[in-house]
C-alpha cells in the first residue's frame, strides 16, 4: 500500500465526499476521515477522535447548503504532493452548483490524506485563502 497521487483515485474520493457533503449524509462524511483527525483554520482548530465527533462538526453544514440551494459540490484538484509512503497532500478548490444550475465558487482547502486498505482518508483539513 502506498500514498495515492493517482488523479482518478483522488477524484473518486472527493466526488464521494462532495456528494455526502451536499446531501447531508453525516455517516458517509464521517467515513471519509481517519481517526484521530484535525481541522485547522485562521481562527480555530479542533481535533476529533470518534466518528460521532466528525458527525457533530458537520451538523450545521447541510442546512447551510440547503438554505443556499447548493445541490452539488465538485472538487477542483489543484495540486497533489506525496508527503511520505502513506500520506498525500491535496490542494482543492470547491465549486458548487446551485438549484438553478449556476456555479458558485467555494473555498480552498488542503487535505492531508492517509492511504488505507479501503482507500484514502482525511487526516487533516487546512482552510486556506
Topology:
Layout: H1 7-23, H2 26-30, E1 33-40, E2 45-48, H3 51-58, H4 61-67, E3 70-82, E4 87-98, E5 103-116, E6 119-128
Parallel strand pairs: 1-6
Antiparallel strand pairs: 1-2, 3-4, 4-5, 5-6
Give an account of the 3D structure.
It comes from Micromonospora globbae. This is Nuclear transport factor 2 family protein. This protein has 129 residues and is of the alpha+beta class. It has one domain (7-128): Roll (Nuclear Transport Factor 2, Chain: A). The protein is built from four helices and six strands. The protein has helices at residues 7-23, 26-30, 51-58, 61-67; strands at 33-40, 45-48, 70-82, 87-98, 103-116, 119-128. The chain has a six-stranded mixed sheet. Strand 4 and strand 5 form a beta hairpin. The termini are far apart. The mean pLDDT is 90.
